[in-house]
Amino acid sequence: MKIIKQISDMQRVMKIEKQQGKKVGFVPTMGYLHEGHQTLLKEARENNDIVVLSIFVNPLQFGPNEDLDAYPRDFERDEEIAALRGVDYLFYPTVEEMYQENRTTIIKVEQRVDVLCGKHRPGHFDGVATVVMKLFQIVTPDTAYFGMKDAQQVAVIDGLINDYHLPIDLVRVGTVREEDGLAKSSRNVYLNQEERTKAPYLFKALALGKLQLEVGMEVHTVKQEMEEYILLHTGYKAEYVEIYAYPTLQELKKVKEEESIIIAIAVKFSKARLIDNIVFSYSKGE
Amino acid sequence: MKIIKQISDMQRVMKIEKQQGKKVGFVPTMGYLHEGHQTLLKEARENNDIVVLSIFVNPLQFGPNEDLDAYPRDFERDEEIAALRGVDYLFYPTVEEMYQENRTTIIKVEQRVDVLCGKHRPGHFDGVATVVMKLFQIVTPDTAYFGMKDAQQVAVIDGLINDYHLPIDLVRVGTVREEDGLAKSSRNVYLNQEERTKAPYLFKALALGKLQLEVGMEVHTVKQEMEEYILLHTGYKAEYVEIYAYPTLQELKKVKEEESIIIAIAVKFSKARLIDNIVFSYSKGE
Fold it and tell me: Does B25 fall in a domain?
C-alpha cells in the first residue's frame, strides 16, 4: 500500500493505472475507520483492480459551531485497517494541500438539503459536494462507495454525479447493524444500559412504517404511528420521522408502485443522538 | 468532422481518443462564430491531435432580464467555419440534453466576480462556471482555449480549474483587433460613422494607462487620467475604468514588479456598449 499526500502525485499514479485499463474503486472518508467503512473497503476490493481510500477531515463541511478540531483522528490505526483491507493507495492530504490557493468557488447544493439533517446544518452539504468533486477529479474513480447510514449525503452525491455527467458509478452500501437491528455507530457507546435495550426500536419503527405503507396507509398516518411507537418504546419523542421519495428527497403525497422511498428517524437519547433510515422500492402488498 | 448531440456519445468517443493517447484541444462557445472564435480554433488546431468545438447557448448564464431567445444563432454557417478550421468533433447538445435531470447544484463563484461586468450581472458567472464544468467533464480536454476579450470569464475559469484540480491547461488567446486597435466585436456594427472613428481611443486609453503605470504613477491617478482621456476623445463618460491584479481581480494598492495587471474599460456609445482590456506583466520603466 502506498501512502500519497500530494494531489499531483495522486493524479500521476491514477493516470498510469487508468491508461493500463485498471478499474478503480474509491472510498472517500474522514478517517477514524469503523465497521461501516470496512464494509465499503471490502466491497471496493471485491469489485475493482485498484482500491483508493482517502482520509481527509474536510473543514469546509463543518459549521462555525461544530468542533472541527475535536473530530477524532487515529491515522496509525486507519493505516493498519487500510492495509488489511487491501487498499492500494491511501490518499492522505493536508488541509493546505487540498485548499492551497484562495478558493474562488463552492458547489452550492440547492436540492435535497432542506430536509432531514440538512435542515439543521446550513452549508454542510455544500462543503461535502465541493470536497467530493475535488476528490473525484484527483482520484478519477470508476466506482465510488458510500454508506447508506448517511442516506442524505448519498442523495447529494448522486445529484452531483448527474449534474456534472461524471463517469462514476455510485455504489450505495447498506447500513451495518447489530444483531438486534441497531445501526452501528460510534455514538452508540454514549447510550446507557437501559437506552441500549431501547435503541433497536428505531429500526423496528422503520420496519413498521414500511409495512404500513405497503398495506396502503397514508404517509402522514404512518409518520404519526411511528412517532407514537417510538415514544412508547423508547420514552423519547422523535426529533423527526420523515418519509420522502429517494434520492430526490421530495414530498410523497401518494405512494406509487416501484417508487423508491426513504423512511428516516432521528431520536435524541440522554447523551447520544441516533439516526437511522431504510430505503426501499415500494410495492403494495395484498 | 463529426457532429455529436448526445453527452454519452461525446464521452464515449473522447474516452477512445484519450486511450489512444491523443491530445485534445477544446474551444467552448455559444456559436455565431466570429473572427475571435476562429483564432481560438486555429490555436487549438495547431497544438493538438484532436480539436473539439462546442456550441451551446447556456440558459443558466442569462439573467431574467437578458434576452436568451434573441441570442443570435446560425448553425449552418458555424458548421462550415468549424469544418474549414479542421474541427474533429462539433458538440452541439440541446438544452434538454445538457439539463436533463433536475439540477441539484450550481457552482457559485465567490471571488473575481464583484468587479467589472460581473458587478452588473449577478449569477452570470455561476452559470458560466457550472456549464464549463459540465463541458470539461464531457469533453475531458488536455487544453481549453478562451479569448481574453472576456478577461473576467478567463479569470473565473482559471479559478475553477485550480479549485477542482482539473488536469486542463487554460490557454488565454489575445484579443483580435482592427488595424486601428479597435477590439473586434459583433457589436461594432452598432457604431455610427463618427463613433467608429472614436472607438479606437478605448485601446489608446489602455495603452496610455499601461505607460503611466510603468513610469510609476499611482493607480487612482492613472484611472482618472484615462477617464479624462476617454471623455476628451470620444465625448462619452466611461462606464468604468478599472485596474486590478490579474487573474485574482483584487485591488492594487501598490504595483509590484512582475505583477500581472489588467486595465479594463467599458464605454456606452449611443447604441453599442464596448468593452476592452489589456493584461500585462508589470515592469517599471526608466
Answer: yes
Q: What's the CATH number where B234 sits?
A: 3.30.1300.10
Determine phi and psi for A23, rounding to 5 degrees.
-90, 125
Residues in chain A with CB shorter than 8 Å from the CB of B163 are 101, 103-105, 134
Secondary structure string (H, E, C) spanning A138-159: HHCCCEEEEEHHHHHHHHHHHH
Strand A2-4 with A89-91, pairing: parallel
Nearest by CB: B104 against A102, A111, A165? A111
**Same domain assignment for residues A28 and A160:** yes
Cα–Cα nearest to A168, from A177, A178, A158 = A158
A68-98: burial string, b at 16+ Cβ within 10 Å, e else: eeeeeeeeeebbebbeebebbbbbbbeeeeb
Helix (H, G, I), strand (E, B) or coil at B63: coil
Predicted ipTM? 0.92
- Which amino acid belongs to residue A176? V
B30 is in an annotated binding site: yes
How many domains, chain A? 2
> Do B132 and B107 form a contact (C-beta atoms < 8 A)?
no
**Is B66 in the same domain as B157?**
yes
In the sheet that A143-147 helps form, which strands lie side by side, from edge to edge? A2-4, A89-91, A50-55, A24-29, A143-147, A169-173
Q: Among A104, A137, A159, select the one facing B105 at the smallest CB separation.
A: A159
Domain annotation covers residue B11: yes
Residue B45 near residue B26, CB atoms below 8 Å: no
pLDDT per residue over A36-46, tens digit each? 999 999 999 99
Find chain A residues with C-beta within 8 A of B112's C-beta.
104
If you measure CA to CA, which chain B residue comes closest to A12?
Answer: B167
A181 lies in some domain: no
The nearest CA of chain A is from the CA of B128 a distance in Å of: 12
Q: What is the mean pLDDT of each run of 10 residues along chain B (286 residues)?
A: 98 94 96 94 98 97 85 94 98 96 94 91 95 98 97 98 98 96 88 96 97 94 97 96 96 86 96 94 80
- The residue range of the domain holding B262 is 186-281
Does residue A179 form part of some domain? no
pLDDT for the residue B54: 98
pLDDT digits (tens, 9 = 90+) for A242-267: 999 999 999 987 788 889 999 999 99
